[in-house]
From TrEMBL:
Gene3D superfamilies: HUPs. It comes from the Bacteria. This is Universal stress protein. It comes from Amycolatopsis carbonis.
Length: 155
C-alpha cells in the first residue's frame, strides 16, 4: 500500500488535486494523510473552491478571503472535513489535520510520527503562491528525502 502526504489549503478541493488523487487511487491501494497548513487570513488569495473532491453531488463552496484568522481556520477545517469525507465515501483510508502556517514546519511534525512514499503539494498559481515563491516543493524534497509532486491550480 502506498502512503501519501497531501499538503494543501486553499487548493484542497480543486480539480487539479482531485485528478492527481484519482491517479494514485487507481494505481493501487493507497492511504492519504491530508495536512492543511493553517494560513493566516492576511495571506489568503481569493479562490473559489470546486464543488467537492470526488465526482458526486456535493455542495458548492466558495471560500473567499476570510475576515479573521479564526475564520481562516474554520474554512481550512471545513475543506479538510470535506476532502476526508469524500475519500471515505470512496472507501479510501485517509486522515488529516491542520498544522503550522509554516508548511515545512508542519510537514516535519507529521513526518516525525509517520512514514510516506511521496509528498503531494497542491498550490496556487505561481503569481499568487507564497509556497512556490519560497520554493516549498524543492525545499521539502531536499529536507525530507521524499519525492514531491507539485500540483498547481489554474485559477
Amino acid at each position: 500500500m502506498r502512503s501519501y502526504l497531501v499538503v494543501a489549503n486553499q487548493t484542497l478541493l480543486g480539480p487539479e488535486l482531485l485528478n492527481e488523487l484519482h491517479k494514485r487511487i487507481e494505481a493501487g491501494p493507497s492511504v492519504f494523510y491530508v495536512l492543511v497548513p493553517n494560513t493566516a487570513a492576511a495571506h489568503y488569495h481569493t479562490v473559489p473552491a470546486a464543488g467537492g473532491l470526488m465526482p458526486m453531488p456535493s455542495v458548492v463552496m466558495d471560500f473567499g478571503r476570510p475576515a479573521s484568522d479564526e475564520e481562516a481556520t474554520a474554512q481550512a477545517r471545513q475543506r479538510l472535513g470535506q476532502v476526508l469525507a469524500d475519500l471515505a465515501a470512496r472507501k479510501v483510508q485517509a486522515d488529516g489535520d491542520l498544522g503550522s502556517a509554516q508548511p515545512l514546519e508542519a510537514i516535519e511534525k507529521v513526518l516525525a510520527g509517520r512514514e510516506f512514499d511521496e509528498i503531494i503539494v497542491a498550490t496556487l498559481p505561481r503569481r499568487a503562491s507564497r509556497w512556490l515563491r519560497a520554493d516549498l516543493p524543492h525545499q521539502a524534497e531536499r529536507r525530507f528525502g521524499l519525492p514531491v509532486t507539485t500540483i498547481t491550480t489554474k485559477h
